[in-house]
Design a protein that fits this description.
281 residues, alpha+beta, Fumarylacetoacetate hydrolase, domain 2, 2 domains, 13-stranded mixed sheet, 4-stranded antiparallel sheet, 9 helices, Fumarylacetoacetate hydrolase, Fumarylacetoacetase-like_C, metal ion binding
């Protein structure tokens, strides 16, 4: 399934993209379902939604499939990012990829913007980069889980654009929290793609992640090119902290691209599986 938050007049609504191209409001097809995606994840209602979609959806539940989209949700309990998880990107920063344990950082929800919303480059901070990433969306609470079990706690994936004030980072790598937390420095969406649909296109290890800058691919790699796999990342960090439904674990980038006002940046997942685009101002 593909789930998104759409703008309807003065409100937003959680919707599911139907196999026939229609777009249906979740609360109209599942009794008692909430009207926003984060609450849907928190109530662990994805299985009920899948059953309802399979049973057939009446037109009265549908909205214009071209309705504008918003960020899927705005208040995850945490956004956890991973640094230097591809060797090539580590080389961009003059570093080597960590081998014993992953490098990570937290981002506040004030950094979130949705598809098509501007990424704002603050004045006076020097070079800023955009980084396409595969985001894992947690579907149920997990804590101290094994690598073998970790992916069973993942509801699905989202394209991510994670921004960095790189000039400041190069001054001192301990500034990581500072350089990652300017407003608009985290975009995700438009769709939460459930893990079963992702895997129907092939194994996760073969999924392509690409940073695209002004229409040209800047850097790409597959999930297999990660130093630490998605399952390893989730298991490792779950030994320290619990993850909750709607939390996002952004798994690192194959390459960061410098951005300036007027640019357009895109995260591409797979060959047509998902795409997220934001302008820069």
């Amino acid at each position: 399934m593909r789930l998104r938050t759409v703008r309807l007049d003065e409100t937003t609504a959680a919707c599911v993209a139907l196999p026939d191209g229609r777009l249906a409001r979740v609360e109209k097809i599942v009794d008692g379902a909430p009207s926003d995606l984060l609450a849907l994840l928190e109530t662990e209602a994805l299985d009920a939604l899948a059953e309802a979609v399979a049973a057939g959806v009446d037109d009265t539940a549908c909205v214009d499939p071209h309705s504008p989209v918003a960020a899927p949700w705005l208040r995850p309990r945490k956004i956890l990012g991973i640094g230097l998880n591809y060797g090539a990107h580590a080389g961009d920063l003059g570093e080597s990829a960590p081998r014993t344990s992953p490098a990570s950082f937290l981002k506040g929800d004030h950094t979130i913007v949705g598809p098509g919303e501007p990424i704002v480059v603050p004045p006076g901070i020097g070079k800023v980069t955009a980084e396409a990433e595969l985001g894992l969306v947690i579907g149920r609470t997990c804590y101290q889980v094994s690598v073998d079990d970790a992916m069973s706690y993942v509801a699905g994936v989202v394209p991510v654009l994670d921004q960095t004030a790189e000039a400041i980072l190069l001054e001192n790598p301990r500034y990581l929290t500072r350089v990652k937390n300017y407003p608009t420095f985290f975009s995700f969406g438009p769709d939460l793609i459930t893990l079963d649909e992702v895997l129907s296109h092939g194994p996760l290890s073969g999924l392509r992640v690409a940073t695209v800058h002004n229409g040209a691919v800047h850097r790409k790699d597959t999930v297999a090119g990660m130093t630490f796999s998605p399952a390893e990342l989730l298991s490792f960090h779950s030994q320290v902290m619990p993850f909750y439904p709607g939390d996002i674990l952004s798994t690192g980038t194959p390459g960061a691209v410098p951005i300036v006002p007027g640019d357009v940046v895109t995260c591409e997942l797979g060959d047509g599986l998902a795409s997220l685009t934001n302008p820069v101002q």
